[in-house]
Structure prediction request, 221 residues.
Amino acid sequence: MRRLKVLIADDHELMVQAVRLALAEAQDDFEIVATTTRGQQVLPLTARHEPDLVLLDLCMPGMDGLACLDLLRTRHPQVKAIVLSGVNDEDVIQAAFIRGAVAFIRKHVEARDLPSALRTAVGGAVAQPVFGEAQAQTAAAADEAGLSERELTILGSLGDGMSNKQIAKQLWLAEQTVKFHLTNIYRKLGVSTRTEAVNAAYRRGLLETPLLAAASRAVSL
Prediction:
């Protein structure tokens, strides 16, 4: 059986490296043919390398993941698109499926579980699978801080370096609504800036993702 050709699209270079490391454990099954950190490169790279599957984040400069899904479905219907995102919002997850994603993998997924998640998604035995449920400690930390699911999602977007405008677009919210949620997040975390909120979130275990943690450990070796 030939290896599946994979295109990785994520605006965080460390996450690209994390996926590389995770799939290296299953190199007999997967071949990474291209990577990009910019959404507008997904279509040209897909045309050039003809991957079997595209693994893409939802928030990328130039073109977001949902727009990429629309174009992939139209121009490359044979390619299976799988979303890898830190978003936990059910409306956004369903929007990805409506646009043709065959699976949604949350970045809470363990690195060792990523290859099997991709195999399941490509195999098609499970309709619209969602992998990588939020870890128990993350949920407990969110409860302790009094954060709602929407606030936790927005906090994750802050950790991804997104602007208010980008968050609003991704979550289909008014920018003023995002600002309202941020005010509540700052109050609950006892901080006053975006940077302080992200730092507090990492200290409290609200933003930890196993994929990034594995990549960070590898880089530090």
In short: The two ends are 34 Å apart (CA to CA). The chain is about 50% helix and 15% strand. The first strand starts at residue 4 and ends at 9. Residues 136-207 form a domain with the Arc Repressor Mutant, subunit A fold (CATH 1.10.10.10).
